[in-house]
Amino acid sequence: MMEQARSGQTIIVQSYDGDQVVLLDVTDYHLLRALASYSTQSGLQSDDWQTRFDTTLRDYLDQRINLGKAAEQLELSRFDLMERFERLGVPLRLGPETAAAAQDEIAAARRARR
């Protein structure tokens, strides 16, 4: 079950009374929690790790950063974050909207290769 959760599958443990426990990848959990915080503007109490996810997702959804920069801030590959966003229903904004955004994506890709 752990390997299935790590590979992006959500595991639901059931008993006679219905669903009891859900297992999911910890990065997906942080992304979902950040999305909930953003959607409700609740400012949920967060630890340092969760704060990074909250801030990054807020900046991405408010279009202050692009997908490449968000991935860099979360220490994920752009493709991993894109796959997670697709799986979790986070809107994808693909392609730079300005020349400056294109330069930012190129710089983020170069830093990720190091």
Number of domains: 1
Note the quaternary state here: single chain
Helix/strand order:
HEEHHHHH
For the biggest β-sheet, the strand order reads: 1-2
CA-CA gap between termini: 33 Å
- Give the amount of beta strand, in percent: 5-15%
How would you describe this protein?
The structure is a single chain. The mean pLDDT is 83. The radius of gyration is 16 Å and the shape is elongated. The chain has a two-stranded antiparallel sheet with strand order 1-2. By secondary structure, it is mainly alpha-helical.
List the helices and strands and how they pair.
Blueprint: H1 2-6, E1 11-15, E2 18-23, H2 26-40, H3 48-61, H4 67-73, H5 78-88, H6 99-113
Antiparallel strand pairs: 1-2
Put the structure in a nutshell.
The chain is mainly alpha-helical and 114 residues long.
What key attributes describe this structure?
114 residues; mainly alpha; two-stranded antiparallel ribbon; 6 helices; 2 strands; 10% strand
